[in-house]
Write a structure and sequence with these properties.
This protein folds into 2 domains: about 1-135 and about 280-379, 3-Layer(aba) Sandwich (Isopropylmalate Dehydrogenase); about 140-145 and about 155-275, Isopropylmalate Dehydrogenase (3-Layer(aba) Sandwich), CATH 3.40.718.10. About 40% of the residues lie in helices and about 15% in strands. It contains 12 helices and 12 strands. Helix 7 links the parallel strand 8 and strand 9 (about 235-240).
């Protein structure tokens, strides 16, 4: 299943060879709750795939979230963002954002900070069923889709103003929220969606609510239609957000690549992942044209923290997506093959009921599961 959305310009002659022999740097940020545990598990697998495929990766760790708040009085330091820009990829663990103090007291939204600071506009969220795992769908239904979610604007008040905040309260009994949709933001996520569709089943569905949000969703839909003309081989249709949720439940097979705005994409991706088996089974990455960050689809699950009970599958698959993105960006067959191997190893371990984590009916802990996946790559 191809999920890499970014197709950079062809690098100059000799660039692939340079990247094959030069160490690539990854910035590892464990995050909150179960973040350190699933990052450790993902790194176990990544170290093995690095060894087998001679990727020459180097790893540098730093703090975000509560660990950073305790040390530096902020959940996200500007120098961490600057450091991320100098790395080839980022591994970002989940954050307990809802439990952070107010932004003025250091509680910055870490994910939003990375999306804005590195312009990670494409939030790529695949959802697929596996024949050997239970789903939350009707019998006989299957799913294999990718949601391309614009991640730097929309209804989110922390990223739709150059200064200030996109929500205000004129009075204690009235709250107003501002939404930002731009042609440039809409066109670039649409182009990535169509490029991805060309490597899959050549279908794009634009999800919107233009019958109500005539200007904002209307602009988004107009941008998608403009980009669609560049891809005559791709079938394109559009659905209202409410209708799309019904179709995801009733006829998920109709979808290949879904492109949508920030808020709708956030909701749809959770729905699609839960239907196909659960948030813990789907990878996720945030990408710009020059940077990429692996981030699990689920949250920090603080009630499981420190118990070795977390399922690291989503984090592992997210890292595989990052390695695949790097392989495409640098035209490296080794990186591409490594990403495929990581994904295949995760599925191979999940296929055996005896080697699953407890949430899937198995008995393995987080780190034991990681060891089984690493052994599959070693074999």
């Amino acid at each position: 299943m191809n999920v890499s959305p970014i197709r950079p310009d062809t690098p100059p002659r000799g660039y692939q060879r340079l990247q094959e022999i030069t160490s690539m740097k990854l910035l590892v940020l464990p995050g909150d709750g179960i973040g350190p545990e699933i990052i450790t598990a993902a790194m176990t697998v990544l170290h093995e795939v690095d060894r087998r495929y001679a990727l020459g990766l180097s790893y540098h760790y730093d703090d975000v979230g509560f660990a950073s708040l305790e040390k530096y009085a902020t959940t996200l330091r500007e120098d961490v963002l600057d450091k991320a820009k100098r790395h080839d990829g980022i591994l970002l663990g989940p954050q307990s954002h809802a439990d952070y103090p107010a932004p003025d007291n250091g509680g910055k939204n870490v994910s939003a900070g990375f999306r804005l600071g590195l312009d990670l506009y494409a939030n790529v969220r695949p959802a697929r069923t596996r024949a050997f795992l239970d789903t939350n769908m009707a019998p006989g239904r299957s799913m294999d889709l990718v949601i391309m979610r614009e991640a730097t604007e929309g209804f989110y008040p922390d990223r739709n103003m150059s200064r200030g905040w996109g929500e205000v309260m004129p009075s204690p009994d009235m709250a107003l929220s501002t939404r930002k949709i731009t042609r440039q933001g809409s066109e670039r996520i649409a182009r990535r969606a169509f490029e991805l569709a060309m490597t899959r089943r050549k279908k794009v569905t634009a999800v919107h609510k233009a019958n109500s949000f005539q200007m904002t969703d209307g602009l988004f839909l107009e941008a998608v239609e403009t980009i669609a003309r560049e891809f005559p081989d791709v079938d394109v249709d559009d659905l209202l957000i409410d209708a799309s949720t019904a179709h995801l439940v009733r006829t998920p097979e109709r979808f290949d690549v879904i492109v949508t705005t920030n808020f709708y994409g956030d909701i749809l991706s959770d729905l699609a992942s839960e239907l196909s088996g659960g948030l813990g089974l789907a990878g996720s990455m945030m990408a710009s044209d020059t940077h990429c960050c692996a981030q699990a689809q689920h949250g920090s699950a603080p009630t499981l923290q420190g118990q070795d009970k977390a399922n690291p599958t989503s984090m592992m698959l997210s890292v595989a997506m990052l390695i695949g993105w790097l392989g495409e960006r640098h035209q490296s067959h080794k990186l591409t093959d490594a990403a495929i191997a990581m994904t295949a190893a995760v599925d191979a371990v999940l296929e055996n009921p005896a080697t699953r984590t407890a949430d899937l009916g198995g008995t393995l802990g987080c780190q034991a599961f990681a060891g089984r996946v690493a052994n599959r790559i070693k074999d």
